Protein backbone atom coordinates (compact mmCIF):
# COMPACT_ATOMS: atom_id res chain seq x y z
CA UNK A 1 0.00 0.00 0.00
CA UNK A 2 1.49 3.38 -0.98
CA UNK A 3 2.57 5.79 1.75
CA UNK A 4 3.67 9.41 1.75
CA UNK A 5 5.51 11.50 4.35
CA UNK A 6 6.00 15.25 4.47
CA UNK A 7 6.72 18.10 6.86
CA UNK A 8 4.98 21.37 7.69
CA UNK A 9 7.32 23.86 9.35
CA UNK A 10 5.82 26.70 11.43
CA UNK A 11 7.19 29.63 13.39
CA UNK A 12 4.73 30.37 16.17
CA UNK A 13 4.26 33.11 18.74
CA UNK A 14 3.30 30.88 21.68
CA UNK A 15 -0.05 30.75 23.40
CA UNK A 16 -2.65 31.13 22.16
CA UNK A 17 -1.32 30.91 18.60
CA UNK A 18 -3.91 29.12 16.48
CA UNK A 19 -2.74 28.53 12.91
CA UNK A 20 -4.99 27.43 10.06
CA UNK A 21 -2.97 24.68 8.34
CA UNK A 22 -5.75 23.38 6.08
CA UNK A 23 -4.11 24.56 2.85
CA UNK A 24 -0.71 23.11 3.78
CA UNK A 25 -2.32 19.73 4.52
CA UNK A 26 -4.26 19.87 1.22
CA UNK A 27 -0.95 20.36 -0.61
CA UNK A 28 0.38 17.19 1.02
CA UNK A 29 -2.76 15.26 0.05
CA UNK A 30 -2.15 16.32 -3.55
CA UNK A 31 1.56 15.43 -3.39
CA UNK A 32 0.75 12.03 -1.92
CA UNK A 33 -1.35 11.07 -4.97
CA UNK A 34 -3.48 8.99 -2.57
CA UNK A 35 -7.04 8.73 -3.90
CA UNK A 36 -8.57 6.69 -1.07
CA UNK A 37 -7.01 6.42 2.36
CA UNK A 38 -6.03 8.47 5.39
CA UNK A 39 -3.83 11.44 6.15
CA UNK A 40 -2.44 12.05 9.62
CA UNK A 41 -1.01 15.32 10.94
CA UNK A 42 1.21 14.89 14.02
CA UNK A 43 2.93 17.66 15.93
CA UNK A 44 6.19 16.89 17.62
CA UNK A 45 6.50 18.32 21.10
CA UNK A 46 4.31 18.13 24.18
CA UNK A 47 2.99 21.70 24.32
CA UNK A 48 1.10 21.81 21.02
CA UNK A 49 -2.00 20.20 19.54
CA UNK A 50 -3.89 19.62 16.30
CA UNK A 51 -7.66 19.77 15.94
CA UNK A 52 -10.42 21.05 13.68
CA UNK A 53 -12.34 24.25 14.22
CA UNK A 54 -14.33 26.82 12.32
CA UNK A 55 -11.47 29.28 11.90
CA UNK A 56 -13.32 32.53 12.53
CA UNK A 57 -12.63 35.44 14.92
CA UNK A 58 -15.25 34.50 17.51
CA UNK A 59 -13.99 30.95 17.94
CA UNK A 60 -10.37 32.11 17.86
CA UNK A 61 -11.27 34.00 21.07
CA UNK A 62 -13.60 31.33 22.50
CA UNK A 63 -11.11 28.45 22.31
CA UNK A 64 -8.38 30.09 24.47
CA UNK A 65 -11.09 31.22 26.91
CA UNK A 66 -12.38 27.65 27.19
CA UNK A 67 -8.84 26.31 27.66
CA UNK A 68 -8.35 28.79 30.49
CA UNK A 69 -11.40 27.28 32.21
CA UNK A 70 -10.24 23.65 31.98
CA UNK A 71 -6.51 24.23 32.59
CA UNK A 72 -6.00 27.73 34.07
CA UNK A 73 -2.57 29.33 33.77
CA UNK A 74 -2.58 30.41 37.41
CA UNK A 75 -3.31 26.96 38.86
CA UNK A 76 -0.57 25.07 40.68
CA UNK A 77 1.16 22.56 38.40
CA UNK A 78 3.73 20.12 39.71
CA UNK A 79 5.52 20.36 36.35
CA UNK A 80 6.08 24.07 36.89
CA UNK A 81 7.16 23.59 40.48
CA UNK A 82 9.76 21.07 39.35
CA UNK A 83 11.09 22.81 36.22
CA UNK A 84 10.19 26.48 36.84
CA UNK A 85 9.29 26.95 33.17
CA UNK A 86 5.74 28.26 33.65
CA UNK A 87 4.14 25.92 31.12
CA UNK A 88 2.46 23.20 33.19
CA UNK A 89 -0.90 24.36 31.85
CA UNK A 90 0.50 24.11 28.28
CA UNK A 91 1.29 20.42 28.75
CA UNK A 92 -2.13 19.68 30.26
CA UNK A 93 -3.96 21.51 27.47
CA UNK A 94 -1.94 19.72 24.79
CA UNK A 95 -2.60 16.32 26.39
CA UNK A 96 -6.36 16.94 26.48
CA UNK A 97 -6.64 18.19 22.88
CA UNK A 98 -4.11 15.74 21.44
CA UNK A 99 -1.03 15.82 19.22
CA UNK A 100 -2.53 14.48 16.01
CA UNK A 101 -5.49 14.37 13.68
CA UNK A 102 -6.41 11.72 11.11
CA UNK A 103 -8.65 12.65 8.19
CA UNK A 104 -10.04 10.40 5.45
CA UNK A 105 -9.00 10.94 1.86
CA UNK A 106 -11.85 10.32 -0.60
CA UNK A 107 -11.36 10.83 -4.33
CA UNK A 108 -8.03 12.55 -3.59
CA UNK A 109 -9.56 15.13 -1.25
CA UNK A 110 -10.23 15.61 2.46
CA UNK A 111 -14.01 15.63 3.05
CA UNK A 112 -13.97 18.52 5.54
CA UNK A 113 -17.23 20.18 6.50
CA UNK A 114 -18.17 23.51 4.98
CA UNK A 115 -16.75 25.53 7.89
CA UNK A 116 -14.23 22.98 9.17
CA UNK A 117 -10.54 23.81 9.04
CA UNK A 118 -7.48 22.05 10.43
CA UNK A 119 -5.86 24.04 13.20
CA UNK A 120 -2.48 23.83 14.87
CA UNK A 121 -2.46 25.16 18.43
CA UNK A 122 0.76 26.35 19.99
CA UNK A 123 0.07 26.20 23.70
CA UNK A 124 3.53 26.99 25.04
CA UNK A 125 4.45 30.23 26.79
CA UNK A 126 7.03 31.38 24.24
CA UNK A 127 7.57 31.51 20.46
CA UNK A 128 8.73 28.23 18.94
CA UNK A 129 9.85 26.60 15.72
CA UNK A 130 7.33 23.81 15.22
CA UNK A 131 7.42 20.77 12.98
CA UNK A 132 4.37 18.79 11.95
CA UNK A 133 4.77 15.40 10.32
CA UNK A 134 2.21 14.62 7.65
CA UNK A 135 1.72 11.02 6.56
CA UNK A 136 -0.77 9.59 4.08
CA UNK A 137 -1.52 5.97 3.37
CA UNK A 138 -3.95 4.43 0.91
CA UNK A 139 -4.58 3.58 -2.68
CA UNK A 140 -3.49 5.70 -5.63
Q: Could you characterize the architecture of this molecule?
A:
This protein has 140 residues and is of the alpha+beta class. It has one domain: Sandwich (Jelly Rolls), CATH 2.60.120. It is 29% helix and 38% strand. The strands form two sheets. The protein has a four-stranded antiparallel β-sheet, covered by helices on one side. A three-stranded antiparallel β-sheet has the order 2-6-4. It is elongated.
Helix/strand layout:
Elements (H helix, E strand, L loop, with lengths): L2 E10 L4 E4 L1 H11 L3 E8 L4 E6 L3 H14 L7 H6 L4 H10 L2 E7 L10 E6 L5 E12 L1
Antiparallel strand pairs: 1-7, 2-6, 3-5, 3-7, 4-6
Please give a quick description of this structure.
The chain is α+β, with helices and mostly antiparallel strands and 140 residues long. Helix content is 29%, strand content 38%. The protein is built from four helices and seven strands; from the N terminus they run E-E-H-E-E-H-H-H-E-E-E.
Number of helices: 4
* CATH topology type: Jelly Rolls
Name the structural class.
alpha+beta
Question: What is the CATH class?
Answer: Mainly Beta
Helix percentage range: 25-40%
Strand content: 35-45%
- Please give the number of β-strands: 7
Mean of residue pLDDT values:
96
What best-fitting shape do the alpha-carbon axes yield? elongated
Q: Would you list the SSEs in sequence order as H and E?
A: EEHEEHHHEEE
Number of spatially distinct domains? 1
Terminal residue distance: 9 Å
Return the CATH architecture.
Sandwich
- Strand arrangement in the largest pleated sheet: 1-7-3-5
CATH homologous superfamily classification? YjbQ-like
Low-confidence stretches: none
Largest sheet: 4 strands, antiparallel
Radius of gyration in whole Å, from Cα? 16 Å
